[in-house]
Amino acid sequence: MSQLPSLTFIPADNAALSDEITRLAGHINAAQHRFLTLLAALIKRDAWAGNGIKSPAHWLNYHCGIDLGAAREKVRVAKSLQQLPAIDEAFRAGTISYSKVRAMTRSATPQNEQMLLQVALHGTAQHVEQLVRKYRRAESLTDDRRDQCQYAARELTCFYDEDGMLVLRGRMTPEDGAVFMKAMDAMVAAQNPPVSQIDDSANLPEKTFPQKRADALLALAEQAMNTMEEGLQPLSSADKYQVVIHMERGNEPQCSIESGAHHLPLSPATARRLCCDASLVPVLEDASGNVLNIGRKTRAIPPSIRRALQIRDHGCRFPGCCESRYVDAHHVQHWCDGGETRLDNLVLLCRHHHRLLHQQGYEIVKRTEQQFEFLTPAGDAMPAVLVPQFATAAEDMANEILAIEREHEGFGLVIDSHTAVTNWQGERLDYDLAIGAMFNYDERARSHRAA
């Protein structure tokens, strides 16, 4: 394989090297703008949809190799720019960077975008980030609905990282947080008495403060479990669903899912999906609905196989999907059709793609013990990855002028080494004054709408 030529000649003079970098930065800015403009059109036309793609961000991840978090931000910015003509035009000309645009679109409105744009043109990306962050903070403090918003924003997420450690991340309202911290501090104090009360001969290892808090949180959980009523104890992971199969003599089995004291009927496709990774209770009934026999409750997938499956797949196996936390185990040859609960007959799927497999006509074909091919409802094979994602001609790389520069010249853009350079001269940004000005713009907009 021949080695491709260098993209461009590197100037020997430091000043020329600096100019080359800043000039290219302007072209990158303009290219980013065109990218987001095309992305906005893709979103508007729903051209991203199809072949199991969940969202425009997942399309970017699959087709362009962009991290899912960064892809979601690009989708948000692409949508926002449609209502911000001044920022959009400056971005198109390559004058401001994507970093500045990303920050501005979090708080920009048609009324205050000119003010924000002036800060972006005469300041750094850090100035813009700080201004937007401080403005959003001031806005939340003056919002009459702040308490309701804080209550609605409470959350607790739990997931296992790559090392198998459980990671907790949460938000509480100030008053709930105070109660939680009081209980936490009390448990930390109870578990860690003063040094004088500890037998020095024990040679206990010194724990860090975060370690003490982790132990205290576990102790709080254990105390809650010890005082919890038996009927409120949480179910194991395999008991998240309980599929009850009601069988009448001489009739087709009917499936339902238990919800409290009720049995909700299920469609065959839904029942098959839930049966992939749930506990089963076969119930034999007569024609009048009287129970004749209940089989022994069994787990579909033993913990040992589930651990091996998680190690092998790491997450959803559907092409282009990045979900790794909320996944189900799916039988390639369904258990109802004689498929065995074996590692080479199982794949991990997120809830969205699990439904596609059972309800939208997608299929999985086993090629080897660890390789599976996904087929669309039309029977077309879906590539696991798109390679290569970016085709580049060697002759374009050999040219002194990059293809992106020729393209921008065709658009009438004049970009040089000064286009993307900020006009900041070291002066201090008065954030209080800037935030006050943004509030004035908002107040004028509200008054104009009221009139």
What does the model show?
With 451 residues, the chain is an alpha+beta fold. Among the domains are: 15-142 and 402-446, no CATH class; 239-298, no CATH class; 303-382, no CATH class. Helices cover 45% and strands 14% of the residues. The protein has 16 helices and 13 strands. The strands form four sheets. Strands 3, 4, 5, 6, 7 and 8 form a six-stranded mixed sheet that branches. Strand 6 (279-285) and strand 7 form a beta hairpin. Helix 1 (14-44) packs across helix 3, helix 2 crosses helix 3 (68-81) and helix 5 (98-104) packs parallel to helix 7 (125-142). The protein starts with 13 loop residues before the first helix and ends with a helix. The relative contact order is 0.12. The model is unreliable at 1-7, 233-240, 290-299 and 391-399 (pLDDT under 50).
Top keywords for this entry?
45% helix; disordered N terminus; 16 helices; six-stranded mixed beta sheet; globular; three-stranded antiparallel beta sheet; alpha+beta; 451 residues
Question: What is the number of helices?
Answer: 16
| pLDDT < 50 runs, ≥5 residues | 1-7, 233-240, 290-299, 391-399
Report mean pLDDT, rounded to a whole number. Answer: 76
Characterize the largest beta sheet: strand count, sense, and whether it forms a barrel.
6 strands, mixed
Strand percentage, roughly?
Answer: 5-15%
Integer-rounded radius of gyration = 30 Å
Describe the protein's topology:
Blueprint: H1 14-44, H2 56-64, H3 68-81, H4 85-92, H5 98-104, H6 113-122, H7 125-142, H8 146-152, E1 155-160, E2 166-171, H9 174-191, H10 209-227, E3 242-248, E4 254-259, E5 262-265, H11 268-275, E6 279-285, E7 291-294, E8 298-299, H12 303-313, E9 327-331, E10 346-350, H13 351-359, E11 363-366, E12 372-375, E13 381-382, H14 394-398, H15 403-410, H16 431-450
Parallel strand pairs: 3-6
Antiparallel strand pairs: 1-2, 3-4, 4-5, 6-7, 6-8, 9-10, 11-12, 12-13
Helix pairs in contact: 1-3, 2-3, 5-7, 7-16, 9-10, 11-13
